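Re: [ENG-882] Designed sequences occasionally contain unexpected residues at chain ends

Forwarding the minimal case from QA. Structure tokens:
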């Protein structure tokens, strides 16, 4: 499904031209569509803009411009909160509370809070209901957040780094839970992560953000099939038409390039399958290089403008 098809499809999340500026960082014209019934993997290095985008989605921060809808509703509507389950990298529950006390609290917050489902999740995850959650391990705290998110019959899960710092066994358990959740075609997930291996396993779509800009978005399978690594001798690197090259690394031993699209055949070149992590690294490196070049040009232009301004000022003073 292409970007146009996804935009026209029924969407669980639709972000259009989102902008948000902080000192030293900005989200720039972010567009993101999560079709209903799917898992969207939202990838990028730390500080790329994943959490800022999610906080904007959840109406936790004001935005400068753009449009955001969740389940065909404005993000500011109170009714949409009933339909969303949220999991953050850091647990937001008071550490002195127990899971039993959380249950009593959430009965008064969510209209569709399901107490039996909550305690069933606690049992499945091996979480003691009367132990203070501040004494839970990181994995247990993450499981507790997921148990809460799944216990009020949410249709959309928004997960910010839900598997970060978890051991492989717990991570795989959580991924299985997410896959089970979207077996219902009315259920959808937006999952941000820098652990690309998790998303290679479960995501239907991938969106890559870097320095506040979306660099790549599409079906996971299409992205992986449309990119390859080429390894060759240094002198052969020039044989690849530049329009296919996302980025390259040249050493004294040879050259390695990430290419996009159907590259014309060349003799004695090794073409290999590529992982999401390798794609992310090459795109981020290329974007960083372009960003630095643009910044340098802007700085040079600013210096030229300053020189011109002062020169004009001096001429005006001389004429007086």
């Amino acid at each position: 499904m292409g970007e146009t098809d996804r935009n026209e499809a029924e969407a669980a999340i639709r972000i259009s031209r989102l902008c948000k500026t902080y000192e030293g960082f900005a989200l720039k014209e972010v567009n993101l569509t999560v079709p209903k019934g799917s898992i969207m993997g939202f990838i990028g290095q730390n500080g790329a803009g994943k959490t800022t985008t999610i906080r904007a989605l959840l109406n936790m921060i004001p935005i400068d411009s753009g449009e955001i809808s969740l389940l065909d509703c404005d993000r500011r509507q109170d009714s949409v909160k009933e339909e969303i389950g949220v999991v953050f990298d850091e647990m937001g529950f008071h550490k002195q509370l127990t899971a039993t006390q959380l249950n009593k609290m959430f009965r008064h917050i969510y209209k569709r809070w399901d107490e039996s489902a909550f305690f069933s999740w606690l049992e499945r995850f091996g979480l003691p209901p009367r132990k203070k959650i501040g004494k839970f391990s990181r994995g247990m705290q993450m499981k507790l957040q997921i148990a809460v998110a799944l216990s009020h019959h949410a249709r959309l899960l928004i997960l910010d780094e839900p598997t970060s710092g978890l051991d492989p066994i717990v991570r795989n358990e959580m991924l299985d839970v997410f896959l089970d959740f979207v077996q219902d075609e009315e259920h959808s997930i937006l999952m941000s992560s820098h652990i690309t291996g998790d998303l290679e396993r479960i995501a239907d779509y991938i969106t890559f953000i870097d320095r506040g800009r979306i660099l790549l978005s599409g079906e996971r399978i299409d992205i992986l099939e449309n990119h390859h690594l080429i390894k060759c001798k240094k002198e052969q690197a020039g044989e690849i038409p530049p329009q296919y090259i996302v980025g390259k690394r040249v050493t004294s031993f040879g050259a390695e390039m990430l290419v996009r699209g159907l590259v014309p055949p060349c003799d004695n070149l090794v073409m290999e399958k590529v992982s999401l992590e390798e794609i992310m690294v090459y795109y981020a490196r290329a974007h960083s290089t372009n960003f630095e070049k643009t910044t340098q040009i802007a700085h040079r232009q600013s210096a030229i403008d300053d020189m011109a301004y002062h020169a004009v000022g001096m001429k005006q003073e001389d004429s007086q």
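QA comment: On inspection the terminal residues look reasonable. The mean pLDDT is 87. Proposing we downgrade this to a documentation issue.
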